[in-house]
């Protein structure tokens, strides 16, 4: 898991957007971007154990044929805790 974290998030841009519906069409207003790089992979297990990083295991059911397929784990961290996994995150306001 640590290696995969390093690979997937060697450098990442986390985008915050606001969604509105106008005449039945969804529109997005980009608000902020947080730039992170070089995750502290050694912190991953501790953050999982403490509940700061959580995991959902995704499973999808097809409504037409009722087949189930695994989509795998989804790891989540609240943006206020990004600095615990990614040193020195940089936030850019887009508004």
What does this structure look like?
This is MvaI/BcnI family restriction endonuclease. Keywords: Endonuclease, Hydrolase, Nuclease. InterPro entries: MvaI_BcnI (IPR029127). Residues 2-86 form the MvaI/BcnI restriction endonuclease domain. One of its GO terms (molecular function) is endonuclease activity. This protein has 95 residues and is of the alpha+beta class. It has one domain. The chain is 19% helix and 51% strand. The protein has helices at residues 2-8, 44-50, 82-85; strands spanning 11-22, 25-37, 53-61, 68-77, 90-93. The strands form two sheets. A three-stranded antiparallel beta sheet has the order 1-2-5, with no helix packed on it. Strand 1 (11-22) and strand 2 (25-37) form a beta hairpin. The chain is flat and about 45 Å long. The model has no long low-confidence stretch (mean pLDDT 94).
């Amino acid at each position: 898991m640590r290696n995969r974290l390093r690979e997937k998030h060697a450098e990442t841009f986390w985008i915050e957007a606001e969604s509105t519906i106008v005449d039945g069409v969804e529109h997005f207003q980009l608000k902020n971007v947080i730039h992170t790089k070089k995750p502290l992979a050694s912190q991953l297990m501790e953050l999982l154990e403490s509940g700061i990083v959580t995991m959902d295991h995704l499973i999808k059911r097809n409504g037409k044929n009722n087949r189930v397929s695994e989509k795998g784990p989804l790891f989540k961290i609240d943006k206020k805790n990004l600095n615990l996994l990614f040193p020195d995150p940089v936030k850019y306001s887009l508004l």
